[in-house]
Amino acid sequence: MSLAAYCVICCRRIGTSTSPPKSDTYWRDIRNIIKFTGSLILGGSLFLTYEVLALKKALALDTQVVEREKMKSYIYVHTVSLDKGENHGIAWQARKELHKAVRKVLATSAKILRNPFADAFSTVDIEDHECAVWLLLRKSKSDDKTARLEAVREMSETHHWHDYQYRIIAQACDPKTLIGLARSKESDLRFFLLPPPLPCLKEDSSTEEELRQLLASLPQTELDECIQYFTSLALSESSQSLAAQKGGLWCFGGNGLPYAESFGEVPSATVEMFCLEAIVKHSEISTHCDKIEANGGLQLLQRLYRLHKDCPKVQRNIMRIIGNMALNEHLHSSIVRSGWVSIMAEAMKSHHIMEASHAARILANLDRETVQEKYQDGVYVLHPQYRTSQPIKADVLFIHGLMGAAFKTWRQQDSEQAVIEKPTEDEDRYTTCWPKTWLAKDCPALRIISVEYDTSLSDWRARCPMERRSIAFRSNELLRKLRAAGVGDRPVVWISHSMGGLLVKKMLLEASKKPEMSTVINNTRGIIFYSVPHHGSHLAEYSVNVRYLLFPSLEVKELSKDSPALKKLQDDFLELAKDKNFQVLNFVETLPTYIGSMIKLHVVPVESADLGIGDLIPVDVNHLNICKPKKKDAFLYQRTLQFIRETLAKDLEN
């Protein structure tokens, strides 16, 4: 204002003068105007420059600190004083208003120019190498599903970032992105934060006692009678044992406490394992899963998982429970918050096929972005376990015998060298699951599923006073689970061993009677039977003790050559197979199987393994090794691979 007034006075003086001004007076006035104007411009420029630099410093990361700490898993942020006295003054108010104005300009320009750093990612200063991180984060939260999946793929394939950049993603990504990264084969484990701290145990309590309390808190309804019986038994025995040994140490398989006396007849059983196995069955019921989550089960199970890293059986049961809970989408946020995704991302990279497959089931049930199917307890995808761009054109299903398992039944034939060395990483020398190791490489366009019907409670049911489960019951249960996993939506080849073949036959017969299961029948292309007793087994001719050693008593009765159920199953299936033109391949053992050191038994003779259609190929192995090739180029595997390729030739070409 003073400068303007001075200029006006000078102009009036010049304009009202009656005589021509002197030259020196005129130029003196001009110089004064220039001095004042120049001083104002210079001062204003300096002030604006200072404010812009201050604003830039306030909104930019301290890159020097980041560079010094780039190998740390956290980012430094400047602290702000909470002393209100420091915020007084006109200069502070002016700076505050200027900062607001700049932010509004940035927001407006972002909207107009569609700046990629709009919304939460707006900034005044960002280094070039940081752009990719924030762009991918923004892309992963896009409304376009294709863009989200592409962002996750690009993140997983990035291996040149610094540690703190991975941590930025870990802290800022949403659950969908986190699960997608966990299911991406090349993802760096630095994308996953450590699980949150677990709550402290209650005073005078232990993990075992809290596990028993968790089981006691669950409803005892909607369970079969055998599970109710053994749940009650586990609770009563654990209560007595814990009371008697209060203050003592009790660990899985440890030496702190002896087994409960009443459990002496059950091999390798402890009260804790009884509780876990009972909780597995509870977790198959949605409302019971809600109770497990509400009562802190996710945290308790995580504590047990950490404590028993050296006990695979405990960890498998825990992962079965988490996998069952993941079937309920309303529990996904709780599972993610409790840190299970980070734990499973690490387990997915395990060289132990069983551990990786359990983790793959959990993450597949959590991944609703790319997986429509739901994998219930006992249904494991061996390939592909990660997200893949490879189109899947057909399914191959593996069904083990009653005393087998989803993984160990399909291992490579044991050799003395393999048993001694136990190579877990060199799959070319020995594989613990040839369908995953060999077949997945030879036929990458297949989805390979291995099924495990519940044998974890078989020792319990040997003493269960209630009725046992029959082949018909198990086949209906498996058929329901496989349909939920999408079996029938693609062409299918079934591969079965021993009594697993009887289950396959029964499942297909049941599917043929149900309209909603018609796709299973229509898409079945072929079946491989490894020593399946279509016409009964010599096993039933032996003593009760030997029969119990191999199969539960009810199934052994159904194996008798004069069993009406077995004869009807054979006749009905043979008619169905001919009508639907199923391709069939039969293998049969020619060597006896040693049971212990005293008993030698030819479990399935050649005449019993002959279905009546398809090739019948005798192999010089025993009953246990008929489905375990010695090596990849062995006849047993190569003939199996040839059958799969020929049966699915048209489907794999399309």
Main beta sheet, described?
Answer: 7 strands, mixed
Percent of residues in helical segments?
A: 40-55%
Annotated CATH topology of the largest domain: Rossmann fold
Mean pLDDT: 80
Q: Name the quaternary structure.
A: single chain
What would your notes on this structure say?
By secondary structure, this protein is of the alpha/beta class. The protein folds into 3 domains: 128-191, no CATH class; 198-241 and 266-371, Leucine-rich Repeat Variant (Alpha Horseshoe); 372-414 and 428-653, Rossmann fold, CATH 3.40.50.1820. 51% of the residues lie in helices and 7% in strands. The protein contains 29 helices and 9 strands. The chain has helices at 2-16, 23-59, 63-68, 90-113, 131-140, 145-156, 163-172, 175-182, 207-217, 225-244, 271-282, 286-294, 297-307, 312-325, 332-337, 340-348, 353-366, 416-421, 434-442, 458-461, 471-484, 499-513, 518-522, 544-550, 553-558, 564-580, 606-609, 635-647, 649-653, and strands at 379-383, 394-399, 446-451, 492-497, 524-530, 583-589, 593-595, 599-601, 615-619. It has a 7-stranded mixed beta sheet, with helices on both faces. α9 runs parallel beside α11. The model is unreliable at 70-85, 113-125, 247-269, 416-425, 456-463 and 543-552 (pLDDT under 50). Belongs to the SERAC1 family. This is Protein SERAC1.
